[in-house]
Task: structure prediction
Amino acid sequence: MIKAAILSFWHVHARDYAKQATAHPDTEIVAVWDEIPERGLKEAAERGVPFYAKLDELLAQKDIDAVIVNAPTNIHRYVLIKAANAGKHIFTEKVIAPTLKECNEILTAVQKAGVKFTVSLPRLNDPYTLAIQEILAKGLLGNLTLVRIRLSHAGATAGWLPDHFFSLEQCGGGALIDLGCHPMYLTRLFLGLPESVSAHYGYITGKEVEDNAVSVLKYSNGAIGIVEAGFVNKYSPFSIEVHGTEGTILYGLPDNKLLLRTSRLGEEASKEWKLQEAPGRRLSAFEQWVNHIKENTTGEENTRLAVDLTKLMEASTLSVKENRAVGLDELAR
Result:
C-alpha cells in the first residue's frame, strides 16, 4: 500500500485527487499539510488523518511514501523540491511551475532523488485524443497546417471559481494558465513545439488576471496553433480542429463526436464527414503514477509534455507583458 499525503487543498481539483487516492486499491491518504491551517485541519479531520502545520515535519515521516500536490502555483518550486529531497514520490497538478528555470530546478531534484514524478495532464488520456493521434499517425490529413483548440466556461461571470483563482501572485495568470493548459498541451502534442508564441489577454470582469485569452503558436513550416481559453463564456463547447493539406478532424462542435474528412481514402470518402470510432480511455495520470511507483518505471512522455507546457505558458505571459512574439529559445533555463 502506497501511503500518500495531500499537500494543500488550494486547487479546485484537490478533492477529486483525494477521491482518486481513496478509491485506488493501492493508495491510502495518511496525512495533510496546507498553507492555510484552517483549511488543512478541516480536510484532515474529514478524512480522519493527522494534519501537519509544518511541511518539513510531514515530509520527515518515514511512513509517508508519496505526496499529492495541489498547492498554489507560485510555491510549487518550494513544495516540490522539498518533497523530492525527502524522497517522496510526487503527483502534482499542472503547471509544474510558472517558469522554465523553476521547472528545471524541480526536475533536477526529482532526478537526483530518484522519485516517481507525474503531472496531471488528463486530456492526454481521453479517447478523442488517442483517436486523433491514430489518424495523424496514418497520415490521413497530409501535412498539418492549423490546430485550433478551445476550452472555456463561465467561472468568473457565474461566480463559482474560488477568489484565489484570480490571484496573479498565486496563479501566475488566469484563464490561459488554468483552463488553457489543456488545449495548450494538446496543441503541442499534435503539432510539436513552435518557434514562437504570441498571446493576447482580455479582462472582461476586471480581475487582476485574464479571463479571456488566446495564444498563437507559430511553426517554421508555416503551420499555426491557436489556443483559446476563457472564464466568461457560458455555453462555449470544448472543441478541437485539426487541419491539413489533405483533410480535417473536428471534435466537439458542439457534440462530442469525432469527424474526419480526407482525400487520402479516395474520392468518395472525401465528399462527406465520417464519424470516427474512438478507442477506450487510457489509464488516468494518477493511475499511471501509481503504476510507475509499483513497477519502477518512468513517465518520460508525461514529463516532457509538462515541461513544454511550462515553456509555452511562460512564453505566452512574456508575450503579453512585452506585446511581442516570444521565441522559446529566449526563456531562461
